[in-house]
Automatic annotation (TrEMBL):
Transmembrane segments: none annotated. It comes from Citrus clementina. PANTHER family: ETO1-LIKE PROTEIN 1, ETO1-RELATED. This is Uncharacterized protein. GO terms for biological process: negative regulation of ethylene-activated signaling pathway; protein ubiquitination. It comes from the Eukaryota. Pathway: Protein modification; protein ubiquitination.
Amino acid sequence: MRTFFPSDSCKESQLNGFNPQSWLQVERGKLSKLSSHNSSSSSIESFIKVPEPRILPNYKPVDYVEVLAQIHEELELCPLQERSSLYLLQFQVFKGLGEAKLMRRSLRKAWQKASTVHEKLVFGAWLKYEKQGEELIADLLINCDKCLQEFGPIDIASHLQTDINVAGSHETVSMSGDQVLRNVVFRIHEEKIECDRQKFAALSAPFSAMLNGSFMESLCEDIDLSENNISPSGLRIISDFSVTGSLNGVTPNLLLEILIFANKFCCERLKDACDRKLASLVASREDAVELMGYAIEENSPVLAVSCLQVFLRELPDCLNDERVVEIFSHANRQHRSIMVGLASFSLYCLLSEVAMNLDPRSDKTVCFLERLLESAETDRQRLLAFHQLGCVRLLRKEYDEAEHLFEAAVNAGHIYSIAGLARLGYIKGHKLWAYEKLNSVISSVTPLGWMYQERSLYCEGDKRWEDLEKATALDPTLSYPYMYRASSLMTKQNVEAALAEINRILGFKLALECLELRFCFFLALEDYQAALCDVQAILTLSPDYRMFEGRVAASQLHMLVREHIDNWTIADCWLQLYDRWSSVDDIGSLSVIYQMLESDAPKGVLYFRQSLLLLRLNCPEAAMRSLQLARQHAASDHERLVYEGWILYDTSHCEEGLRKAEESIQMKRSFEAFFLKAYALADSSQDSSCSSTVVSLLEDALKCPSDRLRKGTEQSRKCLC
């Protein structure tokens, strides 16, 4: 969802010293026109070089329908404790399809069906991570029980019950007459602590045997415990616990000392009490880092899971803390069992995804994926771990390791990993072998678009073009074929055909790399108005986007291009927006709105219109960002309520969104408020009779004053229903 895996060839290719300023100085007379250069074709070719498609670290089965149907069938038949793992697999399938909404739905199902506190914790943290930014609207969700459960901390101690015998009695050896001593004195160096012999013996089987069995200590009134790493203060607390069964007012350091002592002498009730008491004291990352080592060393599950909860609630920031990374990276199978029970694979799936989003080449990404592989229990889990680790090894240019991993993934049944093997063969100079590898796949299974796309990399001329045409026919959503064809046409000076080709995909898929390529085309053509439109659309989607292999900030290019364009007045902008909105020119509308937001125009309504466009273009994360900005810049309370309602609606809280719409209508009847109420009611009600009410609400909306931008609004919001 957020992961960016640049191809090695993209990083290694050079743009022959490309300087964006030089391309933007032609109208100032500092450079001659591009068309006057004899080397214009080669200059354009280097300027618009298209990187190879990247090997995605996703589970991509050959037959998605078959796999999803199989998962559905297994969900109906499997034991309850296996459901979360199956929903996680379903999530991975949807990730391979790029279906963000379905991915989130699967994660929510995994969280809802969690059978252990460990699974609840992991999937709750994952949902929280996927919803980064929604913390800013926490006040809107405060009355939503689902969100409070999902984002709020879990009472770990109440979920982890122990099977300890509360009475704590242990079988004792009967002794006669004067041999039975009521009390025993434990000596620690110069200090003596008197304890109830039978109460202390009841703490554990070892103490019962020592004090009541055939050991000589059973006849002693004074026993030396000086060499057992317990202080007099600690032993007094243990003595009190043997009588009262509680630990009150004990400092953390003493609790740790008693925990170690209890674990050493198998005092399970005492150990459990220390475990829970220490767990209640974990309030920060510093606490968790300090106590996790003790929890693992002393096998204290409540403390370990409490520390884990702190780490997961601070994702992704906590993975910038080397101490936290070391805890996760060095955990062996036993440590993982203490820390996360049977949810080890789910935990490292989450950690690996976060690490790949931060830096797919990092050592911590490799470590987490290695732990993921160790945690895998099924073939499908193993093939995913093999493939993901292979992708990361490929990025790190660790080619031999990557090859072994891709081979293991293929042997486990992941055909897509053959693309990784072919890429490695090509890197090692075996281009024909790579071509034949893809040939064998295409002839042995029902071919998919990515197979022809990958094979096209290992052939030239007409064969390459033919493979890319087949790739597009089988999977029109693949960006690379359009980009390659468009750039090839551009280098041949066939400008009209090149623009038509890249516009084919931008007509239904707003891909940043495709917008960047078209921006390059317009720069080469010195069409700065069109170039400005594309770079402003890019900045709307991703304000921090960097172009030309990450070397130039899009915002910098935006400033340079703006110098070649006459500024529009606010009136000009509104006219342009009406025209482009009416003609359903979504990219153009985004560009105009971006420009208007830099002026003194009312920002609330503009950000709202921007969110509608982004939803229609299937960019939900950018749309949510725009909605939040609309809320911040709302010009009135009734307007703010509408934006809050849409935020709640778009985060699956239809009933809460409906209430916001009603509050807004009570203040002022508006098109947006009625429109929100209609959609929220349609989604929140299962009663078929509500359809007439929805129609009536939409009619009421049309009776309200209009800003003449309604055309397209209904179509935009239909994308959500």
